[in-house]
Amino acid sequence: MVESRTACNGLEESNGTSIQNVLEMHLKTRSIDSSFATAERTTEFGGLTTMTRSKLSENTIGSQDNDSNLITYNSIVADSISHEEHYLSLKSFFAACNGTYRSELLQLLFPIYSVFVVEQVDMDHHTSAQAFFQKYISDHDERYKRDIGDLMQLLKSNEDQLKCRIMEMKKKTFNVVLTSKTLNYLMQHLRNSNNSVLLQTINKHLNIRILDESKFDLDQYWVTETPSEMDEEEDSEVSLLKESIRKLDTLSKTKPSIILHSFVNAYQGLSAVTFSPNSNVICAGFEDASIRLWSLNMKKLGQYSQKSANSKPNAAVVDAPSSENIVLRGHKGPVYAVRFLPEGTGMLSASEDCTVRLWSVQSQTAMVEYKGHNQPIWDISSGCKGSYFVSASADQTLRLWASEYAFPLRIFAGHLSSVDCVQFHPNGNYIASGSSDKTCRLWDIQSAQFVRVFVGHEAPIFTSAFSADGTYLVSGGNDNRVLVWDIRNGKILKDLRGHTDTLCSIEFSKDGSMLVSGGLDNSIRVWNAEAMLKSGNEGKAGSDCLVSAYSTKATSVLELHFSQGNLLLAAGLHETR
Question: Which among 194, 408, 506, 531 has most CB atoms closer than 10 A?
Fold first, then answer.
């Protein structure tokens, strides 16, 4: 019995050794550190020895507040190709995040980049390390200037210095501050993808601190070392950077560059004008019921002529494109409004014939005719996605349309006179209208009821615009005043005066720092929007907000438009004297 037990124990030891050898070979083929697999074992009911527990502890990352966030991985040796793949994967993930997460997660990009360069040098892959360093150095800004300098010194080190520098940089850790919400978001991504290399790098080289969201301020933690480790040179660099940011903010409030397009000898009678979203096309409506388009970048707008769309007697017609413009015909009365859809592929026009037409910019044909109003339509505005638009008419109503239906979805009634202008709110849930009854109204699209009435103008209102955040509404009209309204309480925030004739167009700059207004007094005025929108000055005159005023020789300003680069485009009718 004793001999039999001994033989059995010997068989167990033999099988254990064999299994261990096979396991080591399997891990070696997958580039996994075999020291993890060969950790001492114990017969204590599947327990772990001190060595194994230590290894698992090193290979674990988790939140200080939530044990369920723990992630365990195996030590992996990655090559240069794997490094680049993981770096690009992480970079793409950050780029796809929303702004709240991205501003925090971008702190991880440089530490990962730095560690990958050091690891490639450590593996004697100097050529690939140099290539990786040069290829992605532009991803990182001045805040990492000293760390980038250390990497450059490492790549230039000779054999005697190299080993010492590698050991020093492998011990380096980076301090990163994340909110618990952002860390959980990152962990979820790492769990759902093959990101073992990234997990290993984050665990070994990043010291992640968890902050409460209500106390988080990224500006306090934008360096890789703690504030106590910063030297005087770094302090001066941070000060210079902040000063540069301040100067840029100041520069954004300077006078804009302006291009004025004057319509000369417009015998057809100019009645409406607008610019395409990309600022490459100008479109005008005329009193002879025609619509004309001009290219502003010297490219042709059409390559063919189409004398009739379908074979209907009232079908829209497009004249053959000339070197100057393209003419669209279809309306039966003066065209009072033209607007491009946000994506720029379609265009809307409104006319005295009580219809709205949807045109294809590419084929220059009218695709749909919308009927519903019983009096002339003065203005149209499309939503942020372009599938919905609203029209304002002399019949005292507004109507909401969907591009795929020829009938209105909502009718907004409440004004006591002609509705002269309309504007979609940035969130797409409200619209603002201005009327000859001297009021502006804010309407809820779902209920078709007005939720605010803005009283303060002394004459009809012909133009309006929302601030980028949708908090403020600006209106202007026949009383030569620009009124700034606080939508939250319906009160006048500023009363901007200076124009001497009717206001025709109001527009905010793309960055929200400027407001411009133009009208029949042949002038453009630029206002400081940031100073204008400060609370605490309700109802005060806005003369202190005027940045500059520009006068044309004899051109009334009918339309203002900011390009994506904040270049101001203006258009109007030149009056021959």
Answer: 506
Q: Are 139 and 87 in contact (CB under 8 A)?
A: no
pLDDT value for 55: 42
The total number of residues shown for the chain amounts to 577
Question: What's the pLDDT score for residue 475?
Answer: 96
Decide: 426 and 436 in contact? Cβ < 8 Å.
no
What's residue 180's pLDDT? 83
Q: What is the pLDDT of residue 230?
A: 47
Contact by Cβ (8 Å): 370, 337 = no
Q: Provide the pLDDT for residue 27.
A: 60
| Single-letter amino acid, residue 317 | V
CA–CA separation, 304 vs 282, rounded Å? 20
Instruction: Report yes or no on 546 lying in a domain.
Output: yes
Q: Which residues of the chain have pLDDT under 70?
A: 1-78, 99, 192-194, 212-235, 245-254, 301-324, 535-543, 577
Classify the phi-psi angles of 279: left when phi > 0, otherwise alpha if psi is within -120 to 50, otherwise beta.
left
Same-domain check for residues 208 and 85: yes
Q: List the CATH number of the domain containing 243.
A: 1.25.40.500
Q: Are residues 213 and 312 in the same domain?
A: no
DSSP state of 107: G
CB 249 within 8 A of CB 256: no
Q: 49 with 111, same domain?
A: no
d(CA 370, CA 337): 14
pLDDT at 76: 54
Q: Three-state SS across 48-93?
A: ECHHHHHHHHHCEECCCCCHHHCEECCCECCCHHHHHHHHHHHHHH
Contact 501, 481 (CB under 8 A): no
Pick from 72, 79, 64, 224: which is nearest to 144 by CA?
224
d(CA 381, CA 341): 9
Domain encompassing residue 447:
258-574
Where are the extended beta strands (E) located within 436-542? 439-444, 449-455, 461-466, 472-477, 482-486, 491-496, 503-508, 514-519, 523-528, 540-541
Instruction: Measure the CA–CA gap between 416 and 432, rounded to whole angstroms.
Output: 15
Report the alpha-carbon distance of residue 150 to residue 381 in Å, rounded. Answer: 56
Q: Supply the pLDDT for residue 373.
A: 95
- Residue 66 domain-assigned (yes or no): no
Instruction: Give me the pLDDT at residue 386, please.
Output: 73
User: What distance in Å separates the CA atoms of residue 290 and residue 112, rounded to the nearest whole number?
Assistant: 60
Query: How many structural domains does the chain have?
Result: 3
Written as one letter, the residue type at 199 is L
Same domain (yes/no): 279, 142: no
Q: Would you state the pLDDT for residue 132? A: 87
Quote the CA–CA distance of 257 and 464 in Å, as a whole number.
Answer: 22
Q: Which residue, among 502, 99, 383, 399, has the nearest Cα to 391 in the 3D structure?
A: 399
